[in-house]
Amino acid sequence: MIYFACDIPEDLTYDIEHDVWIRFEGDIAVLGMTDVAQTRCGKIAAISFRDVGKKVAQGKTLATIESAKWVGPFPAPFSCEIVETNDTGFGRDILITNKDPYGIGWLVKVRPTNFENERSHLVTGDEAVERYKARIQELKINCLRCID
Questions:
Q1: This prediction's pTM
Q2: Is residue 142 scored above 80 in pLDDT?
Q3: pLDDT, tens digit (0-9, with 9 covering 90-100), for 21-61
Q4: Is a pLDDT exceeding 90 seen at residue 2?
Q5: Domain assignment present for 106
Q6: Cα pseudo-dihedral 121, 15, 77, 105, rounded to 10
Q7: Structural domain boundaries enclosing 99
Q8: Contact 30, 12 (CB under 8 A)
Q9: How many folded domains does the chain comprise?
Q10: Is 31 contained in some domain?
Q11: Which residues contact 134 (CB under 8 A, 6 or more apart)?
């Protein structure tokens, strides 16, 4: 679904308050910034990841993202253990999230550790689309992506 040029894939799970998307692959969750988040952030200048193997509580930082507009955390939508970071991808092209937030621009892969107790705020499908439409209108966002 495209809304005000913002891509909202309906097959993902979202932590809308923190603009995090989640794609489940078996017992692993791939996490990234939404199109709305990368637009609000602007061109990413640097990213530093927590170490693989680190256990992170819900809401705590998985990575710190820096742009010309903003420096801040990329928070865990649920308690988890980091199993992989996209450090190599960002090393090749720091703008990969600005170009492809739902593909090669993923940030971390994690193993949830308390998912059943911490999932109530996550949304999918039509509910996610409707909530993102409202958020996009409220924040007056028109998504833009970097191109080569």
A1: 0.94
A2: yes
A3: 999 999 999 999 999 999 999 999 999 999 999 999 999 99
A4: no
A5: yes
A6: 160
A7: 17-123
A8: no
A9: 1
A10: yes
A11: none
Tens digit of each residue's pLDDT (9 = 90 or more) over 95-113:
999 999 999 999 999 999 9
Q: Give the pair of three-digit tokens for residue 37.
A: 């988040």
The number of residues in the chain equals: 148
Which is it for the CA torsion 139, 132, 20, 147, positive or negative?
Answer: negative
Phi-psi label, residue 53: left if phi above 0, alpha if psi -120 to 50, beta otherwise: left
Mark 46-64 as b/e (b = at least 16 C-beta within 10 Å).
ebebbeeeeebebeebbbe
Give the count of alpha carbons within 13 A of 58, CB side only.
Answer: 15
